[in-house]
Design brief:
The protein is of the alpha/beta class. Helix content is 25%, strand content 23%. The structure holds 2-acetamido-2-deoxy-beta-D-glucopyranose (4 copies). It is an enzyme of class 3 (hydrolase).
Length: 322
């Protein structure tokens, strides 16, 4: 009785004090904190096949990165085995694990599509990615599949998710559905809503989320993501879009090698990719300082090979291809 009375008085006192303070206290007690990622964190990303875990000759390479970005399904026996994630997280320096999945494309080979998934919910094929089709990300049936992937990532121990292909508004705004040709459109507004929904669910499950590319909507979603992942902002001359963001959150940045998709030939001078490059033209230059981006040089296959800005090269061992 007395305890209840005291608790009531305390609760009333807090409410009378400030509602904001009360709700903050309530939230931080309700769930484990969402992981955060420091600016300039180092990383490795591998989306081709499965990592060899444990490697045949440990320690795993690179053995010092802060963050691993790996495929949610390929490294977990389709979501059934968390041992690779646990292994990485338990390395001596305790790196974080970011789990990648495609949020905006229908990948034919994935096994988590509901049996009754409407074929009008995906349309045109992604340019350069046969077997992947742009999804109607504004549809709740599509979002439910992606929400389940976020829940799965949390259950498997991923610290964060890296949902890809959230920028279909740029490549294929108008999409005829794949069965009857019913048209859906992809817009920036729809991507913003989708990312906000995914971010809320990720945070409710105590994991972080990143924004992959989609620079056009960065200002509208930067407050709900913990990091960004970028491909080719130097080649595309758009790294300065991250100037504000990278003051407080990391930008995991990839520049690709030219040449073959499986090239393993390092760049000998990484100044342009890592330090300073001209975002303007030769006659009207605009040099941008990119030293605060977390840059990896990779090949297009995103295999185990990585070159860091100091030109050191590392090779993560992958499981043999089946
Ligand atoms: C989508 O439609 C195209 C053209 O009819 C067809 O070739 C392709 O197999 C379809 N893809 C899927 C995943 O159903
Ligand atoms: C669909 O997109 C609109 C913005 O265009 C947004 O207001 C709405 O919440 C979205 N619906 C879903 C299910 O994401
Ligand atoms: C590397 O490239 C930058 C930019 O092109 C140049 O200024 C610098 O002198 C080069 N460094 C070396 C060691 O060649
Ligand atoms: C990079 O980050 C440091 C703090 O770590 C800051 O002092 C510096 O201004 C940043 N550089 C740029 C170009 O944003």
């Amino acid at each position: 009785m007395i305890n209840i009375a005291v608790a009531t008085t305390l609760a009333l006192g807090l409410q009378a004090g400030t509602t904001a303070a009360f709700s903050l206290r309530y939230k931080s007690r309700a769930a484990t904190a969402v992981p955060t990622f420091p600016v300039r964190a180092t990383w490795q990303i591998i989306l081709r096949n499965q990592l060899q875990i444990p490697p045949t000759s440990p320690p795993i390479q690179p053995d010092t990165v802060d963050v691993w970005d790996i495929d949610l399904f390929e490294n977990t026996n389709n979501g059934q085995d968390s041992s690779a994630i646990t292994y990485l997280k338990n390395l001596p320096h305790k790196p974080k694990v970011v789990c990648y999945f495609s949020a905006g494309s229908y990948e034919v080979d994935r096994t988590d599509w509901p049996a009754n998934f409407d074929r009008d919910l995906y349309g045109k094929e992604l340019i350069g990615w046969p077997g992947e089709y742009w999804l109607d990300i504004n549809n709740t049936a599509v979002q439910d599949v992606m929400f389940n992937r976020i829940r799965l990532a949390a259950k498997l121990g991923c610290d964060a998710v890296d949902p890809d292909n959230v920028d279909g508004y740029g490549e294929a705004p108008s999409n005829p559905g794949n069965r009857t040709g019913k048209v859906f459109t992809l817009t920036e507004d729809k991507s913003v809503a989708f990312i906000q929904n995914m971010a809320q669910l990720a945070h409710d499950n105590s994991i972080a989320i990143g924004l992959k590319n989609a620079i056009e909507i960065l200002p509208r979603v930067q407050s709900v993501v913990e990091f960004a992942v970028n491909e080719q902002c130097v080649a595309q001359k758009e790294c300065s879009s991250y100037n504000t963001f990278v003051q407080t959150k990391p930008v995991f940045h990839i520049e690709y090698l030219s040449g073959a998709d499986d090239s393993h030939t390092p760049i000998t001078n990484t100044t342009t990719q890592c330090t300073r490059y001209n975002e303007g033209t030769t006659s009207s230059p605009n040099f941008v300082d990119i030293t605060n981006l977390s840059t990896d040089i990779k090949n297009m296959d995103l295999d185990g090979w990585v070159e860091f800005c100091d030109t050191t090269v590392k090779q993560t061992e992958l499981a043999p291809e089946e």
